[in-house]
UniProtKB/TrEMBL annotation:
It comes from the Bacteria. Keywords: Membrane, Transmembrane, Transmembrane helix. This is Inner membrane protein ynbA (Modular protein). The chain crosses the membrane at residues 31-49, 55-75, 87-105, 111-132, 174-191, 198-224, 244-263. GO terms for biological process: phospholipid biosynthetic process. The lineage of its organism: Bacteria, Pseudomonadati, Pseudomonadota, Gammaproteobacteria, Enterobacterales. GO terms for molecular function: phosphotransferase activity, for other substituted phosphate groups. Pfam families: CDP-OH_P_transf. GO terms for cellular component: membrane. It comes from Xenorhabdus doucetiae.
Length: 274
């Protein structure tokens, strides 16, 4: 279980803000860079004034940063702003922001600085491994008990505690080694390629003749959507329907069995692996 699993709920809350920003021409890359530069500014403030009384700012800003990270991703995906440059900004910005926001703890008294530097190294390593998974055919990895959101929660909570109870600085000698262990546990599953299970696809094609072909195709398309509760992966052309889905063959066989296919329909099948 990781805080990252709460992301869909968080995104739903942010969607009105995303739509507002898109309406006024704010891009995903602008949001990404803003989050990074704001993180650097907050990190410099905490470093130049190494006092626990300022650390109440950390959980507030970490929440803002988390919101900005979600917003830039939603702008990119939902408003067609994806780009290779944006992906680089996103990954690089996360790493720089982590270092900028957590390194200032080193300047506080009675902090386990060596453990903190190890944490920063492992934090960079976990993100690197997560991105590296894409180069071997797997998806971007976010799993593990100490991902980006989990680190923000831990350091934000700790920052809030030491802001009001400076004596808690000594907790770092116990907290930071625990974070290191959790980061190592995070690295392990991310370093393993997540194999995609091969799916057997039966592609059914219907050649429909007659004036009612468009109506027939739309009927088949809508019925498939209703049965599966999701958009069908279908190709619709004049007089031709293709259903490409793991269970597409079963659907079309049932349609044929109950006489629901249009007249003068020819069925043909192709088996493929994905």
């Amino acid at each position: 279980m990781t805080i990252y699993n709460l992301k869909p709920l968080f995104q739903n809350l942010l969607r009105p803000t995303v739509n507002f920003l898109q309406k006024y021409g704010i891009t995903a890359n602008q949001v990404t860079l803003s989050a990074m530069f704001l993180s650097i500014a907050v990190g410099l403030l905490l470093s130049l004034f190494p006092s626990t009384r300022f650390y109440w700012l950390l959980p507030i800003f970490l929440f803002i940063r988390m919101a900005l990270n979600a917003i830039d991703g939603m702008l990119a995906r939902e408003h067609h702003q994806k780009s290779h440059l944006g992906a680089i900004y996103n990954e690089l910005g996360d790493v720089i922001s982590d270092i900028a926001l957590y390194l200032p703890f080193c300047f506080l008294p009675n902090i386990n600085s060596v453990s903190l530097l190890v944490i920063l190294f492992l934090a960079v390593l976990t993100e690197f491994i997560g991105v590296l998974a894409q180069t071997v055919g797997a998806s971007r990895r976010y799993d593990g008990p100490m991902g980006k959101s989990d680190r923000a929660f831990v350091f934000g909570s700790y920052g809030l505690i030491i802001a009001f109870f400076p004596s808690a600085l000594s907790w770092s000698h116990y907290l930071f080694p625990l974070v290191i262990i959790l980061l190592l546990i995070t690295c392990y599953p991310r370093s393993r390629r997540k194999q995609k299970k091969p799916l057997l696809f039966f592609t059914g094609a219907m050649n429909i003749q007659g004036d009612s072909s468009i109506l027939s195709m739309n009927s088949v398309f809508l019925m498939y959507q209703c049965l599966h509760g999701m958009p069908a992966d279908m190709e619709k052309r004049q007089g031709h329907v293709v259903i490409a889905h793991q269970w597409g063959h079963l659907f079309m066989m049932l349609m044929n069995l109950f006489g629901l296919l249009p007249a003068n329909t020819t069925l043909r099948w192709k088996i493929s692996w994905s």
